[in-house]
């Protein structure tokens, strides 16, 4: 998919993305401290079933499980020499799962290292990290790219620049924010829109963060600044833990969908769910919206 094709598609219809991956895989037995990428390749049928159910529920974009498949994150698990292999195999796994019923997005996120002057990571080093992963995702056959759960504007702009050099795929960007639209690193996403668009972002918005009931004002502020489609991919409300240590979220499917309606009215055009959501949440969104 080219950037022009994405712009035409997103400009004429409401697009459903997938829901959570991590919270569903942990519920299926994935250990928190193990490499998610390696666990997924050891348990491919679990992931394929989940992603197939998202496509059947109505998701038109499904993220490949490459969230932390960059060399910095993989180094913590002794997998730094497997960046290309893991991204290609995981992208292929998602393509098998959705069977052409959804576009596959190569998933990227922050490296966990701070850029200069706050940390030791230079822009050149970070650019190389993102370029390597994006190049592998392109070889894996993804249709577009999504950099999500971002906290830093500078890191996001670097990822966009890397994508622009490596390929012509559309790049969606979403940040994790508080109810005022601010990231932990001090980025006001609405105010960052012009810079993101200048660097080629095909869609801009928020993911994870909060429940949809706390993001209406944030989405409206982003919409006021943006000329590209707006992403809303919030959690299923707020998390809680029972006595056994199991995490659950406060919103059921119907409640989530009703609040998501308000985000669409506020300007969101590409919607889905993050932590706590399942294919049933996407099916409810499709029914309601």
**Number of strand elements:** 10
- From the spread of the alpha carbons, the general shape counts as globular
Count of runs of 4 or more consecutive helical residues: 12
Name the strands of the widest sheet in spatial order: 1-10-7-6-5-4-3-2
Mean pLDDT: 95
- Stretches where pLDDT is under 50 for at least 5 consecutive residues are none
> Strand count, sense and closure of the main sheet?
8 strands, parallel
The secondary structure category is: alpha/beta
Strand content: 15-25%
N-to-C span: 25 Å
Series of H and E elements: HEHHHEHHEHEHEHEHEEEHEH
Gyration radius over CA: 17 Å
Which percent range fits the helix content? 40-55%
What is the subunit organization of this protein? Answer: single chain
InterPro entries: BHMT-like (IPR017226), HCY_dom (IPR003726), HCY_dom_sf (IPR036589)
Cofactor: Zn(2+)
Binding site for Zn(2+): 208, 274-275
Pfam family, one: S-methyl_trans
